[in-house]
Design goal:
The protein is an alpha/beta fold. The chain is built from twelve helices and 20 strands. Strands 4, 6, 7, 8, 14, 15, 16, 17 and 18 form a nine-stranded mixed beta sheet that branches. Strands 1, 2, 10, 11, 12, 13, 19 and 20 form an eight-stranded mixed beta sheet that branches. A hairpin with a 2-residue loop joins strand 16 and strand 17.
């Protein structure tokens, strides 16, 4: 079975793919989107809902390998690898270690900051065009530290933010100021940093649904189908999908944690891994949250979702097939109760999602080496929501032949070819 040729076929119905489809459509192209799960049910729907434009520092930072062994050996810690997955992920961890060198970290940080700056501008434009302002909470973020030592250790990261023009307030040994920003926290938190420009969506599932509705109402087509292989054919690309053969002038590969399977059909093998994120959404938290809360020493956040709160985070590098370790959710809730006295954690809806992650924390954005008619847009880790609008603008530039607004060399798919 064969379908008629269209301008662009987007593979992936998450926030990256949907944002790209919208931007391509806005530029006058005919766009069709296919998604494997029938509604973008993955990380784009179950995340913490944060537009984290101030998070420019890559996870692979100098000195992290001194702390990593302790984390990795703790199956319930903020960064862990299930023992049965350790051998498989070893090559990725080696690249992660290399990405944490001072020189490479500085390059990755600069690239991340450029993408964040573009993404913030692009998101504000997307909000205006789609009428999405009612789906935003502009309430800032409070990052909390357990001790003076951990607060001091965070200063290089804040210095980097200052260098890139990100406004923030450092709070040192000031319980009253912290309580002013967020009442009801445990008294252990005397050190913090407040980023007033941070904002969230009221619900990432509602955000994605809104973008999808805008795309469809403007004539976009969405179908449930799983792409199996890509094949360049002259002036178009053929996509083998569930027994059907689809064709398009360009294909955007935005299939999240599954993207590397399709990239292999083009002879490319990006070192894409999966950050498995866990959370629980509490329907009746009985805690009045004023700002997004990040617990820096524990790798998790508490954020408002709808009328409830979502407690989630941590990184489990465990691939796509291992069963969830729901004990991780229990640990997060135990900590949340201790840090937010009075929080009601009963009746929570637990979730685990797959966040596609590259060793240097930078996504893959750019043309395939096999054909410039395939544009890659995957590997955003836990920053997919944040970087979606910016990535969409870059993808549309590449498809239409416009000059991208930032240098895409740091995001090329073959940057790890010889590492």
């Amino acid at each position: 079975m064969s379908a008629a040729l269209q301008d662009v076929l987007v593979i992936g119905g998450g926030v990256i793919g949907m944002s790209a489809a919208l931007e391509l459509q806005r530029r006058g192209l005919s766009v069709r989107l296919i998604e494997r799960d029938g509604g973008g049910q993955g990380a784009s729907r179950g995340n913490a809902g944060a537009f984290a434009f101030s998070d420019i520092e890559p996870l692979a930072a100098p000195g992290i390998m001194k702390r990593a062994p302790k984390w990795l050996l703790d199956p319930l810690g903020p960064l862990s690898v299930p023992p049965r997955y350790a051998l498989r992920i070893a090559p990725w961890l080696l690249r992660f270690w290399r990405a944490s060198s001072r020189d490479q970290h500085a390059k990755s940080l600069a690239a991340q900051a450029a993408l964040m700056g573009l993404s913030k501008t692009a998101l504000e434009a997307q909000v205006a065009v789609t009428g999405a302002e009612p789906l935003l909470r502009r309430e800032g973020q409070l990052q909390l530290y357990d001790s003076a030592a951990s607060f001091r250790a965070s200063q290089p990261g804040w210095a980097a933010r200052r260098a890139h023009g990100i406004p923030f307030e450092l709070i040192e040994d000031d319980l009253a100021r912290i309580a002013e920003l967020q009442p009801g926290l445990d008294a252990r938190f005397r050190f913090a940093a407040y980023t007033p420009g941070w904002f969230n969506t009221t619900d990432p599932a509602a955000w994605l649904a809104h973008l999808r509705d805008c795309f469809v109402q403007a004539g976009g087509r969405v179908a449930q189908a799983e792409a199996r292989a890509l094949a360049p054919e002259g002036d178009h690309v053929r996509v083998e999908s569930d027994g059907a053969s689809l064709r398009a002038g360009h294909v955007v590969l935005a299939a999240g944690a599954w993207s590397h399977y399709l990239a292999r059909s083009l002879g490319e093998r990006p070192p894409l891994e999966t950050e498995r994120g866990y959370n629980s959404t509490l329907p009746d938290p009985r805690f009045e949250q004023k700002t997004h809360l990040s617990f820096a020493d524990h790798g998790f956040v508490v954020t408002k979702i709808g009328q409830g709160l979502r407690v989630g985070g941590a990184v489990e590098l465990g691939g796509l097939t291992l069963p969830p370790n729901w004990r991780r959710v229990e640990v997060l809730l135990d900590k949340a109760r201790a840090f937010l006295p009075g929080l009601n954690t009963q009746g929570g809806q637990r979730w685990m999602g797959f966040r596609p992650s590259m060793p240097d924390s930078l996504p893959v954005i750019g043309p395939s080496r096999a054909t410039r008619r395939v544009i890659h847009a995957f590997g955003h880790g836990h920053l997919g929501l944040t970087q979606a609008a910016g990535t969409a603008r870059l993808v549309a530039d590449l498809v239409t032949g416009a000059t991208p607004e930032i240098d895409l060399a740091p995001f090329r798919i073959n940057r790890f070819a010889f590492s």
